[in-house]
Amino acid sequence: MGLAAGGFLRLFQTFLYALEFCCASIILGIYSYFLAFLSRRNLSISNQSKAVEGISGVAVLYLIFAVLLTCFLGGVSFFAFVAIVLDVLFVGGFIAIAVMTRNGANSCSGYVNTPLGNGPSNVGTPSLRLPCKLNTAAFAVSIIGA
User: Fold this and answer.
1) Any stretches that span the bilayer, and where are they (predicted)?
2) How many CA atoms are closer than 13 Å to the CA of 76, on its beta-carbon side?
């Protein structure tokens, strides 16, 4: 009975880490696009965008190892303690990402605030509607990740 329950818990924890990995990688991809776009056009990059990129990048690296370690070293006390500490830190990181991407909670029509600029959603190259929707996705996924 205990072995089956322990296996189920390990499998469930691996699932949660995999879900969080997907969330972090989506945010990393979106903000990599934003930073590449701004960099190619020699535009200034806000510290918030750099922070979102950094937090999500570190989360992706941690979660790759967390999924592997949970599968192979689950149940070892030292690794469990380290995982708890890092999990709490990354909950804070995902909350910080949600705060930094909170403009994504607004409507993507009319005047929008995006990492690529502010203005009417139907003006610009590219239109600011796409970056607004991507920022909304990053906001939603950061809440799921937290």
Assistant:
1) 15-39, 51-70, 76-99
2) 10
Task: Report whether 104 contacts 26 (CB < 8 A).
Answer: no
The pLDDT tens digits of the residues spanning 1-32 come to 445 656 777 788 788 888 889 999 999 999 99
29 is written with which tokens? 């991809």
The number of helix segments (H) and strand segments (E) in the chain equals 4, 2
Phi and psi torsions of 5, nearest 5°: -65, -40
Distance between CA atoms of 77 and 21, rounded to whole angstroms?
Answer: 23
pTM for the whole thing?
0.85
> Which of 47, 34, 54, 41 lies closest to 104 in space, CA to CA?
34
List Cβ neighbours of 44 (8 Å cut-off, separation of 6 or more). Answer: 38
For the stretch 65-91, pLDDT in tens is 888 777 776 667 787 788 889 889 989
